[in-house]
């Protein structure tokens, strides 16, 4: 270890509460949609690539889902699409916040004071066989599937299913 690194480590160890301050989440209340979108950077295909348009459609639907969580209209939106919700889904929807999506993708409900490493990102996976988003918290990656179902259908229910299957409610 270099001299400076060991000095920093010694300083952190000797300063009561310093490690907690450095590695705990930022204070400031609830995480909103804009913070989630700013944190989860989409990795789009290059401009002009035929995949890019479909990725942008999926991203727009993802943002609409987050906004419907924040403004409390998710259940109404899902029911307007003639989707029959289960009682469990109906009971979970009012509890959802944008923090749940951040927790699903990164394992943290708020941004740590020193930021995320690696930087969180949204990866678009072109796969006709999958529609329910997945995540790898060790790499801070959210995988959104791009196919006819997700671009032409209702992505919101797939996102809800992913959050419910991700056991995030025991952690937030």
From TrEMBL:
InterPro entries: HECT_dom (IPR000569), Hect_E3_ubiquitin_ligase (IPR035983)
The keyword Transmembrane helix belongs to this UniProt entry's keyword annotation: no
Gene3D superfamilies in UniProt: Hect, E3 ligase catalytic domain
Cited Pfam families: HECT
Keyword Ligase: yes
A GO molecular function held by the record: ubiquitin-protein transferase activity
Keywords: Ligase, Ubl conjugation pathway
SUPFAM superfamilies registered for this protein in UniProt: Hect, E3 ligase catalytic domain (SSF56204)
Protein name: G2 M phase-specific E3 ubiquitin- ligase-like
Annotated organism of origin: Paramuricea clavata
